[in-house]
Structure formats: structure tokens, C-alpha cells
Design goal:
about 45 residues, alpha+beta, two-stranded antiparallel sheet, about 15% strand, elongated
């Protein structure tokens, strides 16, 4: 699929384009999207 080693941004974009959405993790401050997916705009 890739002709090069994809960056984290490229992998995230490909996952979102395929329909993936991050699952928020429950924290004491409320639900939070963690990891690289926190860069995505919140719905």
C-alpha cells in the first residue's frame, strides 16, 4: 500500500479515510482521545 515508510500523520489520515474514528478514554477529567489521534478535530 505504501511505497515509503508512512508518517504517523499519513497513517492517521488513512485510517480516518477508511471510516475509523477514535474511541475516547474515560479519565477523571472526562472522556479524552489520547495518542496521535488527539490531533483530530472533535465532533
Amino acid at each position: 500500500m505504501w511505497d515509503h515508510r508512512p508518517s504517523a500523520d499519513e497513517l492517521l489520515a488513512a485510517r480516518v479515510a477508511a471510516g475509523w474514528q477514535p474511541t475516547p478514554t474515560g479519565t477523571v477529567d472526562g472522556p479524552v482521545v489520547m495518542g496521535h489521534a488527539c490531533k483530530l478535530p472533535r465532533p
